[in-house]
Amino acid sequence: MKKLMLLGDEAIAQGALDAGLSGAYGYPGTPSTEIVEYVQRNREAIERNVHLTWSANEKTAMEEALGMSYAGKRVIVTMKHVGLNVAADPYMNSALTGANGGVIVAVADDPSMHSSQNEQDSRYYAKFALMPALEPSNQQEAYEMPFLAYEISEKYHLPVMMRLTTRLAHSRAGIKRRKVLKENELHKPENPNQFMLLPAFARKKYKHLLSIQEDLIRESENSPFNKYIDGEDKSLGIIACGLGFNYLMENFEAGKCPYPILKIGQYPLPRKQIEKIMSECENILVVEEGMPLAEEMLNGFLGNTKIKGRLDGTIPRDGELNPQIVRKALNLPELPSQAIPDIVAGRPPALCVGCPHIDTYKALNEALKPYGKGHVFSDIGCYTLGFLPPYKAIDTCVDMGASVSMAVGAADAGLFPAVAAIGDSTFGHSGMTPLLDAVLSKSNIVVIIMDNDITAMTGMQDSQVTGRIEDICTGVGVEKEHIRVINPLSRHHEENVKIIEEELNYNGVSVIIPRRPCIHVYAKRKRKN
Amino acid sequence: MKKDIILAGVGGQGILSIAAIIGYAAVENGLNLKQAEVHGMSQRGGDVQSHLRISDREIYSDLIPQGGADLIISVEPMEALRYMPYLSQNGWFITNTTPFVNIPNYPDTEKLMNEVNSIPNHVAINADQIAKDMGANRSMNMVMLGAASVFLDIPYKKLEDGIKFVFGRKGDEVVKANLKAMKAGKDFAEENKA
User: Fold this and answer.
1) Alpha-carbon distance B158 to B155, whole Å?
2) What is the ipTM for the molecules in this complex?
């Protein structure tokens, strides 16, 4: 069979589909977005009627996935690392309810924060929840792992995490497909208490979860994804997790590493192999993409001088790995390379020419001029770029929805004006609930919902609230006359400034909706017509 | 056989089409391939790059090591220079000369070109102009692919097949224009290997 050229994200999606997937749930977030997108355009998935529409946020996605598992079907839920924080409540509890149909929680981490607010390592969440995790080092493993994940998930009645990182998520390679498995038949849980977490049940379930931890370690010890590769030179043993293995092998001609290697692709860590490498080798180098999870466990609280890695500075404590960093950690001579010529200037991302957010920010800046800086709470999306010159229009970016809630808190403290600037899709994700808070506490805020018809930053996914924003705001209790729709175009500038000023002067909750499609959506529609 | 290629440009300039065509040709030629892309925030007018690795042996890292690239192919001159740390000592540097200016502190173009011309193995080609002269404004990236084809060790015919594969859905006219653009780039590189 011909190989498929797939991104790591797409390989997971294809693997899950071939392992009998019935539903993919998720919210777009770089670098995880392409998992659900692949399912959405996959002909076989469409023919099979696999669930494939985006959810409002990661929490609803995780819960919907649990519901599908309750009904006995195999399901995948996808998110970026910070999305797992949003889904943390159902995620943590899913370790107690467990799964009926197999559940994969696919989380894509973004070390070095290419498109993120932090670089948290989701493997800690797997450990926290006492859940097994699989971490591919290449696209073929990303394809194969869903088969094993569903097997484990259904054997132990437990969701399984698949953790991947930016470089694999967005790197393409050839995939060999396996035989396609049939989807599960609809079947309710055998145990009618399985998904019931009243304290009396939850306590039993937690004891059960604790009791199977040794079994999960056995699974890891026997896993095809944890490999002990012996080497003659025992002065050093290398524990390489996920992508770390690739950067290690890159530094040896034809992958011939003289040291023993323990390649980790499945957690909890395999005790037997760890004992072997620890006892046989003089020093241990731990190479892991993300935070030093394995290294911390091996070090213990008091530390162990034979262990090298991110904690002792052999590898930088933060940021993603690459071949050079691992080369240095191996004490190999640097490859000759040149510096970036001084003439090269930085080219940070910027709002596109013709972007509607530009006109919104120009009007907002003018309306806020009398009050000085420091009044605009913003959010996660393309419009976060409005912090940069020449706009300098916003002051904060914390997490999805925080613009509205932070404006509420600041207004409660007496800050005037307090403005929230949020995008349509982010509003649907987490902006509606704090708007309810604002209405209930009669907070003096102006919420600007920039409606560009799309989830733009992650690459043009549908927005859940398109066509519904005004109804949602009135439904929550915002007064109709203080929901104002404006057209962010330079020829409407004066009028838009005036409307923003009017709402700033209204003592209560106002919503302003600058509405104009993302310039890329506009261009695409124009080409089509 | 091993070719490690850095593809560089600004978000939206079409480097992923170049990657897709080389990738198609390499796989059709029985080679292994890994291709790392940039998605997300940088695509909004920021610097973007793709690491394209082709080999007849197993490829481990998705990223090319610094000092290891056999080729830099850039659709923008300043972006080409940004990846100098990746270029190997005998590597080739192939760049479009038309600047993409979307920042206030874009360097003086004459100084920029002096920097480009100081690189021993380079091909500098005004791909925008060549595409425009052919009446195929949007095929600038295919002119660049043509210029790079001279250094790829992949049969030219396979690259032509790649263009047909990638652009086939857009109709014969688009395929024809892109094939012509690639040929023009190839001819230029053959005459102007510095």
Assistant:
1) 5
2) 0.93
